[in-house]
Write a structure and sequence with these properties.
2 helices; single chain; 258 residues; rod-shaped; five-stranded antiparallel sheet; four-stranded antiparallel sheet; disordered N terminus
């Protein structure tokens, strides 16, 4: 009996020990899980913050580059087109022989499914050398002085296997002057121009009316003179005719002549 009691006590003690160890293990696992979850969230938050900071830096650098090199940029070509997967799009700009060095500037922007997406962009000179290159970039600016005459090639590449992208590309030559205050016409300037035009019209109308009035007076004077001349001529004719009648009648009534 004593041996059975000791055996039962040992078994009970072993069972309690096993239960205690399981509880400790479960507690540690729960503690580890509770500790790992916030760690993952913190890592994701840190990564998102880093990506956002990187995007802000890239955007600020793009704005600074635009302010520094793209002031007064007037694009001669501004085109938005679909760029299929595994395809390239080529644009060309030819510099004639004997022309002076010209500044060529432009930019590109790529998007896919209403989100920004990256493309590969490069520029080659007439000799085939790559003078500008951007890889895996969603947007970018380029500017260089084309000193060698010939054909410059602008290449936009989409190396994705399944994703089609919408790309906007702009290109311009020269350094056109940007918009100045004197290039703009205000409402006051338009009002002054209209007022000047109305004054000119009024002056011209007055001059034409005075000239027409003088012409009418001249015509009336000529008409009066012609009428007076006609009346005088008529009276002279009547007088001469009466004299001739009287003279002929006197000749016929004079018997001495007969």
């Amino acid at each position: 009996m004593l041996f059975k009691k000791v055996t039962l006590i040992v078994v009970a003690a072993v069972a309690c020990t096993c239960l205690w160890l399981e509880g400790v293990t479960a507690g540690e696992a729960t503690a580890e899980q509770e500790f790992e979850v916030p760690s993952s969230d913190e890592d994701n938050s840190a990564e998102d913050a880093a990506n956002a900071a990187r995007e802000d830096v890239d955007r600020s650098s793009l704005v600074e580059e635009w302010d520094k090199h793209m002031e007064g940029f007037v694009p001669e070509l501004l085109l938005t087109f679909p760029l299929p997967a595994r395809s390239d799009e080529f644009f060309y700009e030819e510099i004639p022989e004997g022309s002076p060095p010209v500044l060529i500037r432009g930019g590109f922007f790529a998007a896919a499914a209403e989100e920004t997406s990256s493309v590969e962009f490069s520029i080659t000179d007439p000799k085939g050398n790559t003078i500008f290159e951007k890889e895996d970039e969603p947007e970018g600016l380029f500017h260089f002085v084309a000193k060698d005459p010939g054909l410059y090639t602008f290449i936009l590449s989409n190396h994705k296997w399944m994703q089609e992208k919408m790309v906007t590309f702009s290109l311009g030559k020269g350094n056109e002057t940007h918009l100045q205050a004197e290039h703009l016409e205000t409402v006051e300037d338009h009002v002054k121009a209209i007022d000047k035009t109305l004054v000119d019209i009024q002056t011209e109308s007055t001059y034409l009316w005075i000239r027409q009035k003088s012409h009418m007076k001249a015509v009336e004077s000529i008409h009066t003179r012609v009428l007076a001349f006609c009346v005088v001529e008529f009276l002279v004719l009547i007088g001469i005719s009466g004299f001739q009648v009287y003279y002929i009648k006197g000749m016929l009534s004079d018997r001495r002549l007969l």
